[in-house]
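REQUEST
  id: r-88c1
  op: predict_structure
  target: Exodeoxyribonuclease III
  payload:
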Amino acid sequence: MKIATFNINGIRSRLAALLEWLERESPDVVCLQELKAQDAAFPIDEIRAAGYGAIWHGQASWNGVAILAKGGDPLESRRGLPGDKNDTHSRYIEAAIGGMLIGCLYLPNGNPQPGPKFDYKLAWFERLIEYAAKLYASGHPVVLAGDFNVIPTDEDIYNTRSWKKDALLQPESRACYARLLEQGWTDALRATHPDERIYTFWDYFREHWKTNSGLRIDHVLLSADLAPRLRGAGVDRWVRDRPRASDHAPVWIELGASGKGKATKKTG
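RESPONSE
  id: r-88c1
  status: 200
  body:
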């Protein structure tokens, strides 16, 4: 099974690119972030025509998450991260697909920091850590995928110098991500590429795409029973090179039926 995550950065304006990617790469499950569209504006007809069912949690102009499944509709199991009934942001959606729970998340950016946006980021991260622990302990095979808005280590960024004050690079953000992994989750992309600088995001400034000045902030985490099934992981960089592209590229993993075999790499 091929599972992917993609911060689309506006699903209406990037729909053609999304459909091209779905046709070319044919993932079985897709987690989308930053839809930037209300529920009624989600392009379900076009997505169904491409062979996918979907659930989505939209929001006007900001945020928004969705899960697509090839050949059928995902079975929604949760909409919104628990722990704060006053949180109105559309940042988490979860579904049962193929015997697994798939959690799609868009963690807050947190800039500027310090300040209320960074406080919200850390509070949301704490809620995720608490909920992820329950998922991990549930015994269900679980995938957590999305834009985590955290650069885990200095090996996940082209250069730390100009990002020192950014919320994505702060020690508190990194510590939260480390605590999440300490529950037992496997960072699939890093597990497959342990010694490589591999990026998933290139901002629109200073020709960072052309110079491969990127960040790794889109992650796919696997529960303990899924980690041995990891066969491969990579980044579909060609999508970032399309006209009017999102500043993210899709990240994908492949899971086999058992724990045997060796992971493969692809970053094309």
